[in-house]
Amino acid sequence: MRRLMILASALTLTACATPEQRLQTGLYDAGVSKPISICMASKMVHQLSLTELQRLSSLASLKDSHIRDLTVGELFYKVRALNDGHILSVATTAGLSCAIDPTR
Question: I need a surface site. Which of 1, 10, 19, 56 has the fewest CB within 10 A?
Fold first, then answer.
């Protein structure tokens, strides 16, 4: 019974994840470093539609298993493969800003 309660709590918390948290996790899972993924998610989430955010979530499946941290250039290459100019523009602006100073 206790395990069921813990599982139910975990599922509830996962379902409550904000789009920003999901984007941050997706960027991190795709290979972007933790500080950069936090910074980029905070900058990008309000500029992209839910559909665009869902398209970005597909990047995690493109992760190279032997590479942990992507460079900004490698991330842009993957984003460009989505063939969406708006996503590329938002990601480029956020990525460059966060690569210069991830604390902003």
Answer: 1
* DSSP letter string, 6-71: HHHHHHHHHHT--HHHHHHHHHHHHT--HHHHHHHHHHHTTTS-HHHHHHHHGGGGG--TT--SPP
Q: What are phi and psi of 82, to 5 degrees?
A: -75, -15
Tracing tokens 């470093």 back to the chain, one arrives at 33
Q: Is 64 exposed, middle or buried (0-12, 13-18, 19+ CB in 10 A)?
A: exposed
Nearest to 72 by CA among 52, 104, 102, 50: 102
